[in-house]
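Justification of resources, computational component.

The compute hours requested in this renewal are based largely on the per-chain cost of generating structure records like the one below. Each record pairs the submitted sequence with a full structure-token output. That output is archived, and it is also reused by downstream analysis tasks.
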Amino acid sequence: MTTFTPLASLIGGAIIGFSAVLLMALEGRIAGISGIASRLLPPVDDRFPARLAFIAGLVIAPFVVAAVTGEPVLQTVSSNYPLMTVAGFLVGFGSVFGSGCTSGHGVCGLSRLSMRSMVATLIFMLTAFITVFVVRHVIGG
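The structure output for this chain reads:
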């Protein structure tokens, strides 16, 4: 069962939105995680430190939340490694094929009223809904 956390979700969404606005305002860049992460690989350029800091913030954030709230951040990840490998490749393929990832299209593209991002977001959200339904009700996860 999924826990309903409206306050934490609102705060998290506001922080994500604020960071996307800051990145656009200060760097003129869209906050697409897949693009930022892929540009950490060689060849590197003068924006490497900013990209590294952005990704480090994603990794460090749960530890900061745990320190502030005193509660551990719980995240369940499947132990089915073949499934996770296939899922990772599918997400990577989708990011390349869709010319962006969920954060780039869903957060930044929608806020700019990009038609391409609206279509991409509808497709990946519909895919997510179907996947959750199949896993929970057909496969029995």
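The chain has a mean pLDDT of 87. Residues 72 and 87 are 26 Å apart (CA to CA).
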